[in-house]
Task: structure prediction
Amino acid sequence: MTASSIAKDLRAEIRAGTYKPGDRLPSEAALMTTYGVARMTARHGLSMLKDEGLTVTRHGSGVFVRSFDPIVFDSTGSASDDSTITPVMDETDAGLTVRTLAVTPAEDPTEEARKALGLQPGVQVTTRERLHVKGRKPMLHGVSYVPTSIAADTPIAEDEIGPGGTYARLKELGHEPVRFHEDVVARMPTIEEIEALRIEPGTAVLQVMRTALDAQGLAVEYSRIVLDGGEFMLRYDFDA
Result:
């Protein structure tokens, strides 16, 4: 009996509902007895499920089936009250609170942000960095960039941006976003992201890169959002 066979059996039982989210899987010792294998084989079988994101290990307690009650990140829904990072996610309904980590009124943009906003070299941006937290668990990290020529001397460049977030302030300034371009990639997290979002081993992140354009076609904000892939589901609604 191989570790892959043990993982295959347990995976099938998880999918069949024999083991439900939150249930504890058999211990290494129990698997050794059931399958007649060495401890390393049993351990490897369990670790394969963790690498697939199906289980989590609680030190001192065992291996448990992972629960997945996703927060919906709806890219075609209506804007939420805090649109600086996720204009289409209702943080209140999701049980999220938003922490402003830093606001930099004027700095050189990253090359990624400069290209997305169509800025010439030397043009600065106002940067807002935020963390979305559920309970004590960080769920999402985002950084948004607005050309300083738009954001200077407005609440966008202040810690307290006010109701409606960046998009509401842009509307007041005559730059209401009316169209968005969004790219999404799934990838494994960096060490910094694992630490910042407390991501379980084997879990990918979703990176959303969104550019907001006003009615004149001017790119007025660029956001780079990193979500814990084990906590979010992306939703898109569009006509055929």
User: Anything to note?
Assistant: Strands lie at 55-58, 62-65, 71-74, 96-107, 125-134, 137-147, 179-187, 205-213, 219-228, 232-235.
